[in-house]
Amino acid sequence: MRPICWAALVLLATTAARPAPALPEPPIPPANPPTDETAPVPDRDIRAPVNGSQNGVEVNLQDFRNNRYDQSPGYSPGSQFETNEDKRPIQTPGLTVRVPLQ
Fold first, then answer.
1. Whole-number Cα distances in Å, 47 to 22, 37, 51, 99
2. Pick from 24, 32, 37, 85: CA 20 to 30 A from residue 60's CA?
3. Cα–Cα distance, 92 to 96 (Å, whole number)
4. What does R_g of the chain's alpha carbons equal in angstroms?
5. Residue 89 · residue 63 · CB < 8 Å
6. pLDDT tens digits for range 63-85
7. Average pLDDT, whole number, for the chain?
8. Torsion of CA 6, 12, 17, 20, to 10 degrees
9. 95 near 63, Cβ under 8 Å?
């Protein structure tokens, strides 16, 4: 073998045989933890913001492409699974109709 190959082999063998890095020490808990404070909890009395007055029927043009989750695990980097719907250059638009109930 060439001397460069031997040097590379020795370099790889010595770097692979190094000891594992030491873990940091965990923090020391306080001697007297606070007992007079309660833990934070979500506000149960919160209300949704009042939306503006919409007294009529609302019709919108919308693209119904459904991207539910990432289906690319297991493929090479930069590629992902495509369904027949994803391969279309233009998606079929649809109408959304909202009728307020009173």
1. 49, 26, 12, 23
2. 85
3. 13
4. 31
5. no
6. 766 655 666 667 777 777 777 77
7. 76
8. 160
9. no
Residues 97, 87 contacting (CB under 8 angstroms):
no
pLDDT in tens, 31-45: 887 778 777 788 888
81 contacts: CB under 8 Å, gap ≥ 6: 71, 72, 75
* The residue type at 73: P
User: Of 83, 63, 89, nearest to 71 (Cα)?
Assistant: 83
DSSP secondary structure of 1-22: --HHHHHHHHHHHHHHTSPPPP
d(CA 49, CA 51): 6
The C-alpha atoms of residue 19 and residue 15 are separated, in whole angstroms, by 9
